[in-house]
Design a protein that fits this description.
Layout: E1 2-5, E2 11-14
Antiparallel strand pairs: 1-2
C-alpha cells in the first residue's frame, strides 16, 4: 500500500502500482533452519 494525497489534502492508502514493486521479501511466522524446505508463490503480470 502507498499513501496518496487526494485533491482535498487528505491522505489515503491505495494499492501500490505494479511498477513500484522491485523486490519481494518473505516473512515467516516461525524461524527456519538451514535445511528447511518451504514453498511460496506469488502472481505477476509480465508485459
Amino acid at each position: 500500500m502507498v499513501e496518496v494525497v487526494l485533491p482535498d489534502g487528505t491522505v489515503e492508502l491505495q494499492p501500490a502500482p505494479a511498477e513500484a514493486y522491485t523486490h519481494i521479501n518473505w516473512s515467516f511466522a516461525e524461524s527456519l533452519t538451514s535445511a528447511t524446505d518451504v514453498e511460496v508463490s506469488y502472481q505477476a503480470t509480465v508485459n
